[in-house]
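G., the chain you wanted modeled:
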Amino acid sequence: MGRRNTTLDDGFILVGFSDWPQLELLLFIFISIFYSLTLFGNTSIIILSRLDPQLHTPMYFFLSHLSFLDLCYTTSTVPQLLVNLSGLDRTISYEGCVAQLFIVLTLGGTECVLLVVMAFDRYAAVCRPLHYTTIMSPLFCQVLAIASWVGGLVNSLIQTGLMARPLCGHQLNHFFCEMPVLLKMACEDTGEIEAKMFVARALILVFPAALILGSYANIARAVLKVKSMAGRRKAFGTCGSHLLVVSLFFGSAIYTYLQPIHRYSENEGKFVALFYTIITPMLNPLIYTLRNKDVKEALWKVLGIGRHSE
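Predicted structure as tokens:
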């Protein structure tokens, strides 16, 4: 018997991690903790960047956008995953699936571009310190932030538009509406669509990753010229931690979106997706800001208002 087309009145069953029932409770606990940390860390960055004038700089302007983006990104998938893991509801409507796909692709694409913008900001700060304030003017920062969101939106419109094809079956072997899984459910041959999507994904994943690596290569070259060993160690420690998070995000995304669909494994894909939907958004505030002296001072200033006023 052939698979029946999924219509607008139908929905999908999100298989999630039900193939490993022994892991569901453990995953529920860990993901709940990670999600709570993500909400706390990213919300703190947004609030502190607004409240403390010392943090009214291009770096924290972009970090606020990244934090807001990560809050939206995790919230578009994680609450549903937690409900799925609890066994209360494993379904999603067709309309809800399309909306989730569009939102996830928009936010994921925006993060790719925004990480390039943040790498360029660090490059300008380290390699062009005398011209930094001129280069990263408030107007230019706003233009770069808007360009990041527009880039993510255009990427999502292209890929979601290409995915507007009949789907066969009702079991979606993932914890959210992930593009490779939906492509595998297509009723017709997807060879031409995959070729077009590969170009779109390469532009939003490989090109930004190459630009980021290039920026940090120039930063490393500039740092090597610093005579102070302590200064070098601090700079390399900061750059190394940034590159670790960027590598986790881009590495897991490239693994998911750039391999041929016939080689994509749903079971492996679920665990890889945890990196860019949960782990990276949780690590971003820790790596980029909560280790930073300025942010720590701003945090103690906000928390210590009542204490100092006594």
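The first helix runs from residue 21 to 51.

Shout if anything looks off.
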